[in-house]
Amino acid sequence: MSLDDSVTHWFAAFRAGNREAVRHLWDRYFRRMMGLARIRLRAAHRVMADEEDIALSAFDSFCQGVELGQFPNLQNRDELWQLLVVITIRKAINVAKHERRKKRGGDQVFRSDDQLLEELISHEPSPAVTAAMDDECHRLLDQLDDEQLRRLVVLKLEGHNNSQCAEQLGRTRATVQRMLNLVRQTWQQELAQ
Question: What are phi and psi of 165, to 5 degrees?
């Protein structure tokens, strides 16, 4: 069973009442949720709560929602991740809003939840989000110990398909696919730590 299939399986098991499956979902998503919260908090000029608090609260809300049957149409890992993103971002927005209210004028420009959410998911990310994404990309590229693997990742990020990557790297499509599998394995191990 692949890791992606496992996520769908773990979610189905949790929905069916298996509390052990929650641990697997936690292990898979919690660090990513903290990263999202960190980006959002950085954009809000850092508030009193930290990204771990927000990710914990978001994951707890998700678990409570599953137990109450609030997500009956959630079918796969992609939909699950989208839901976790929305919950995490909303929690971060609420924390930032609460902190601004407490300061009474600490942030003179007040934006609605919709405006804040739009900033996060717009086609043009804020400079803080762009910087955080750039840092994360460099960190993940640094995990690859082979220059050919790093070049392949950059080509894929630029939108090249496997045939184009093979041509540019002077490799076969099968070799490119093996290289991509190696990149995935390396990054999955990194994310699992």
Answer: -65, -45
